[in-house]
Amino acid sequence: MKRLIVVYNPRSSQFGRVRDEVLAESRKLKGWTVGKFEVKDTDVDDNAAKLAELLSDGDLVVSAGGDGTATITLNGVMLSKADGLKLGVLPYGNFNDTARTFGTKNLQEIIEGKTMEAWGMECLINGRHWRWAMCYFTIGLFAESARIFDQKDNRKELRTGRRGMFYSIWLLKKWYMKNRKRQFLADFVLNRDGEELRCEGMTDYVAVNGKSMARAMRGGEWFLDEKKFLSETRSLRKLLNLGKLMMRSVLVRIPGEEAQRNLLTFDKPAEIMIQAEGEYRKLKDVKTMEVRKAEKPVKVMMRN
Questions:
Q1: Which pLDDT does position 166 carry in this prediction?
Q2: Which of 237, 236, 218 has its CA nearest to residue 228?
Q3: What is the mean pLDDT of the chain?
Q4: Contact, 180 vs 239, CB < 8 A?
Q5: Percent of the chain with pLDDT over 70
Q6: Sign for the pseudo-dihedral over CA of 221, 223, 228, 234
Q7: Full set of structural domains in the chain with CATH
Q8: What are the residues whose beta carbons fall under 8 Å from the beta carbon of 141, sequence distance 6 or more?
Q9: In whole angstroms, what is the distance from residue 197 CA to residue 208 CA?
Q10: Residue 174: pLDDT above 80?
Q11: Among positive and negative, which fits the CA dihedral 75, 77, 82, 84?
Q12: Taking the complete model, does pTM exceed 0.90, yes or no?
């Protein structure tokens, strides 16, 4: 029989829906053996490694949660030595960038969907692998702002399901107005496929691969292929600059530079705030950060 593994976080704000709409529905499927992987309250690395160990050849692995759960699931699939794995992603988080990339909204759409090969991105810190991501990596102001969603009171409000996206945007605005004048990134040199650019006074660096993020940027046929992603650096300390950025993202798109590899070399070992699709981390003594296309694709279930 075919095997379905559902990955979920019982502490997430929408776990009640996951329980009713995914876990309960999965038990009704005919011709499938259903297993569950409960995300532990540790970190991405620990959860991804444990998930990778339990996967078997041909498994369909479905993330039922937000972008953080999707990141764990993707990294577990990438780490696994099993053959023929397929990845499905369902939107049960605050932003759901990964799920929107593939367009699947319920379990049946994944079961009945089509398979495509998707090339994600890999991030290396000081020359060593750190994480895979399907849609984006970002460091700086916006990366650090993700912390507010992990605060106990805010998670409680989000868990009620009454405020959702509007509450998330209000939290981000409040945090930005308080923190926008801080220094978020040390000066660095950006090597983009061999061309070097000196970056001083920046607040943000972003590398974008998936279409849910790329809608705000100018792109071509690079979406999830094996060759290209988009990247950009910005200084967003001034509210006017942030407003212009948001307007351009809606009306005319933000210009981004296509590349297969970006290497950021900091003037001196730096502390950076990095986010990879819902996971926020503070990393110290960072000399280099490299973003490149993954060396192998993932078979992903897309909506027909």
A1: 60
A2: 218
A3: 84
A4: yes
A5: 77
A6: positive
A7: 2-112 (3.40.50.10330), 123-293 (2.60.200.40)
A8: 176, 179, 180, 184, 203, 204, 236
A9: 18
A10: no
A11: negative
A12: no
